[in-house]
Amino acid sequence: MIMRAGQALGLLLAMVGAATASAAEFRSVRYWDASDHTRVVFDISAPIQYKLFVLESPHRVVLDIPAASAASLGVPNSTGVVRGVRTGRQGKNLRLVLDLERAVQPKTFLLAPAGEHGHRLVVDLFEQESRPAVVKTEAQLRPSGERKVIVAIDAGHGGEDPGALGAAGSREKDITLAVAKSLAAEINAHAGMSAVLIRDGDFFIPLEKRYALAREAKADLFVSIHADAFTNKAARGSSVFVLSQRGASSEAARMLARQENQADLVGGVSLGDKDSMLAAVLLDLSQGATMGASEVVASNVLRGLARIGNLHKRELQRANFVVLRSPDVPSILVETAFISNPAEEKRLNDPGHRAKLASAVTEGIREYFSSAPPQGTWFAANPQRPSHHVVARGESLSAIAQRHGCSVTALRETNKLQSDNVWAGAVLKLPPRQG
Ligand SMILES: [Zn+2]
Fold first, then answer.
1. Considering the domain boundaries, does residue 11 fall inside one?
2. Are 295 and 325 members of one domain?
3. Domain-embedded: residue 420
4. DSSP code of 229?
5. Residue at a domain's end among 79, 97, 127
6. Domains in the chain, number
7. Is residue 267 located within the same domain as residue 149?
8. Is the preceding omega at residue 374 within 30 degrees of 0, hence cis?
9. Residue 307 is part of which domain span?
10. Are 11 and 47 in contact (CB under 8 A)?
11. Which of 219, 199, 240 has the alpha carbon at shortest distance from 326?
């Protein structure tokens, strides 16, 4: 898996030059019906460039592909929203026409060879009303003043991207979905919080698209769920990551980032849509404030996980995960455990253990929103002072007292402090609230 990442990158670079150099052939077409979209997959002999447009009466999606040819694609049975596929020439271009039942919103991307599959062009035809995979939340419907905070939960991998494989054959994509569903249920069971699943079934979503969906859902927080894998089967425990812009905190973290980003190298090339251009622009914006918030929530989640079991890394980890690049939504990635460790793989398959994980992560999330409630939310209207405070680097006792609405004296007495000097990382007990 780690090896293949480099290869995929090579293929991407080749793609740029290949578009004009060699003629791609469209060899076959496959369909897949999802609840909210129809997926059409073309098997192609080489990477391509293409233009996509949508026509009405009758509804069609048209793709023009320079220097390409089509084998007889076979007459497909109509499926989902697709009535049929036609090919023809338009000048020097191959023209592909998808005849449709009704208007759709197309999303397209290329997939590099993986497993038994070669190069593919994927055309997802989304029903216009529904948003892809995002479950509607009650939060958006509530009158203003006391909305719930929205937590977007991203089950890592999915569909053609199985993620890591467990010692006994569990697939990471199945584990992450099960954990994500359990986490969503736990979050929804708490006052003031509402969960949105970025992926609620076994399908592939490009990494950039995942945080775009969270932003569309107006998420206050993005949590990506994964399960780690390592060649050493003894590796165990949870880790929590935030985005690093300046390199990962360790070589292992760098390797993991390559592994987790592999889906993006394979499938994240989006030529027909504006998404990737928008994403590139967004990446240039300052992520400073968001990254600070991400660190706070990640530390809280790490503490929550420490309560239920072993941590792989006690410190917050930093890596350049594409999925964490949202410029304005605090984002964390949780490697729940090592799927490559037989004991942990077994636990990940146990609904009881997944519920424990969900509860630990939720506790961390709840503490974060309590300590920094977004304006207009239930948390802002129902302040719950935490019982403890972890001293940040450079934080003074008076700043801590001010933040928690207590006096320096009370803080000093509660913690039996001899002076006002506090060390970063120290855990202070907060005095009981007055009146
Ligand atoms: Zn993963």
1. no
2. yes
3. yes
4. -
5. 127
6. 3
7. yes
8. no
9. 138-371
10. yes
11. 219
CA of 163 from ligand 1 middle (Å) equals: 5
Kindly give the distance from the C-alpha atom of residue 156 to the centroid of ligand 1, in angstroms, as a whole number: 5
For residue 140, is pLDDT > 70?
A: no
Per-residue confidence at 360, pLDDT binned at 50, 70, 90?
Answer: very high
Claim: this prediction has a pTM higher than 0.70: no
- Residues 253 and 149 placed together within one structural domain of the fold: yes
Please check whether residues 295 and 365 belong to one and the same domain. yes
Gap from CA of 334 to ligand 1 centroid (Å) = 9
Question: Whole-angstrom Cα distance, residue 249 to residue 371?
Answer: 27
Report the alpha-carbon distance of residue 351 to residue 147 in Å, rounded: 30
Please check whether residue 106 lies inside any domain of the structure: yes
Q: What 3-state DSSP class applies to 397?
A: helix
pLDDT digits (tens, 9 = 90+) for 238-288: 999 998 765 445 556 666 666 666 654 333 333 233 344 444 433 433 355
Residues 307 and 193 in one domain: yes
Ligand 1 centroid to Cα of residue 264, in Å, is 12
- Report the separation in Å between the CA atom of 49 and the middle of ligand 1, taken as the mean of its atom positions: 29
Q: What is the CA radius of gyration of the chain?
A: 24
The SS3 of residue 368 is: helix
Distance, CA 364 to ligand 1 centroid (Å)?
21
Ligand 1 centre distance from Cα of residue 96 (Å)? 35
Expressed in angstroms and rounded, the spacing between residue 51 Cα and the centre of ligand 1 is 32
- Do 259 and 389 lie in one domain? The reply is no
With respect to residue 378, please indicate whether it lies within any of the assigned structural domains: no
